[in-house]
Amino acid sequence: MIIALDTLRALPLFSDLSQDEGAILVRNSRIVTSKRGQYLFMHGDKITHFYVICRGALQIFRETPGGREVTNDILIAGDSVNADEVVARQAEHAMNARAVEDCSVLEIPTAWMREHLKDFDHIAEKLLAGIADRLHSAQVDVEQLTTMSAAQMVACYLQKLCVLYNFDPHGFELPYTKALIASRLHMEKETFSRTLQTLRDQGIMVTGAHVSIKDMRKADNLACAECSMAEECGAHRALHEKLEKNVGHGA
Amino acid sequence: MIIALDTLRALPLFSDLSQDEGAILVRNSRIVTSKRGQYLFMHGDKITHFYVICRGALQIFRETPGGREVTNDILIAGDSVNADEVVARQAEHAMNARAVEDCSVLEIPTAWMREHLKDFDHIAEKLLAGIADRLHSAQVDVEQLTTMSAAQMVACYLQKLCVLYNFDPHGFELPYTKALIASRLHMEKETFSRTLQTLRDQGIMVTGAHVSIKDMRKADNLACAECSMAEECGAHRALHEKLEKNVGHGA
DNA sequence: CGGCGTATTGACGCACCTCAAGGTAAGTGG
DNA sequence: CCACTTACCTTGAGGTGCGTCAATACGCCG
């Protein structure tokens, strides 16, 4: 598939590409599509390309010997998929990447990336900041796993969704199946389901895929009570900023 | 404190520094020492320097609102401390760094690092590979937390220690207090203590700080049973390679 | 209608946390 | 050299949050 320069520029990673740089990149990359359920790559595959999601969502996960799926992350349009593998010079993918929904993915040969990263100074910086960011997220994940209850993690995640997708906390639809979200939160779907019920008392109503958070303050207290990374994880703060802006507009 | 060029070169990060580069770096860095228990920096402090440990060990941790310490990692000589914060251009430290034992730490102003990273091509690469590596470790942590029992995590950690410190699995001393190790494994010290008892049946004997792993195969099966990252986490494989080499020498 | 993917609900057990009380070892001062 | 302190570790009893297994319900499409 031929790539338009605009398609590239729409990706945060490449947003400030010059005309010339863009032309070079267009020549060295292409767009692939994956149907829902299809694998972009699997654990153990040779690493041949660097990927950036243009449309859709990818589940990044591993499979334990016991057959259990451990979801590492759910990546969406604009996210780079395996930047870490490119800079770490790994030979094989450590994870599986499966399309949660139909996807378009930009693919760039890793060899080319490694060769030319230094020519695109600003790109390299963004890529690295992205990796550092993901490291940070992983650390947050660990902390939350060890200190927060299922209810707190769910509340926290729902708020994060609002920020990520620019949802209105007072009413929005879950963007993935509950099973996937549960997996992303490292809990069983039964636990997730039960947790949603208990959250009703806290003003977080979930019926089907529809979520509405009645009392932001209550939800916040719940989510933040044990979350030392409230500031950096940023979900709550970002959400509040957004809400305050809305109030401002409304008044 | 004045730094010898050799001191720099002893650090993996700077091992292939040229004479000139070394001289430049010496002029722009210094060595600080921290006594056991002292903080190198705390959560919320302004980020002023990039640090590399020359001697000793640092506990990297956060404190939850509830007062619980969550240990992110224990870094030792040769490790860079906050490479991610340098490339992510954060303003404040997200973690606490406290000396587990008396430490010597190389400190380089972040401004200088950011300015000159691109002049030291190979250094930048190592730094980034280090970050990618740590991302990987964090992901392993998450996976192990969600899939492995306390016994498995402890067994796995003991093996990792052998690789990291080049210990002989058949007999070595724990390099940190049990409380610290428990914290690193995200479990309570009581749980850790009890787990060590149960591991005796599996041929992993721990009395005081002394560890001896009688039956490597048994320990392995235990640790790897649910560890999908056996290859990459590398503890077991690296350990086996080491043991096989020893056997080879012995014969 | 039947079948499939997805979600809910119930009953049950266990691994780990929590609180509380020793116990051991090393260091300090008389 | 012994009493005392302090830091570190172990052991016990009890509670619980979440995983597990199994059955049922819901929504969607052919």
Q: What do these coordinates show?
A:
2 copies of one chain form a homodimer. In chain A, a hairpin with a 2-residue loop joins β9 and β10 (210-213). The model of chain A has no long low-confidence stretch (mean pLDDT 89). In chain A, α7 (178-184) crosses α8 (189-199). Chain A has helices at 5-9, 19-27, 83-88, 110-116, 121-147, 150-165, 178-184, 189-199, 216-224, 230-233, 235-250, and strands spanning 30-34, 39-41, 49-55, 57-63, 69-76, 96-99, 103-109, 172-173, 204-207, 210-213. Chain A has 2 domains: 5-135, Jelly Rolls; 148-248, Arc Repressor Mutant, subunit A (Orthogonal Bundle), CATH 1.10.10.10. Chain A is globular. The first copy, chain A, is α+β, with helices and mostly antiparallel strands. Chain A has 11 helices and 10 strands. In chain A, the strands form 3 sheets. A 4-stranded antiparallel β-sheet of chain A has the order 2-6-4-5, with helices on one face. In chain A, strands 1-7-3 form a 3-stranded antiparallel β-sheet. The A-B interface holds A 43, 62-66, 68, 70, 72, 84-85, 87-89, 94, 118, 121, 125, 128-129, 131-136, 138-139, 141-143, 145-147, 186, 224-229, 232 and B 43, 62-66, 68, 70, 72, 84-85, 87-89, 94, 118, 121, 125, 128-129, 131-136, 138-139, 141-143, 145-147, 186, 224-229, 232. Chain A binds a DNA duplex (30 and 30 nucleotides) through residues 149-150, 177-179, 187-191, 193-194, 197, 208.
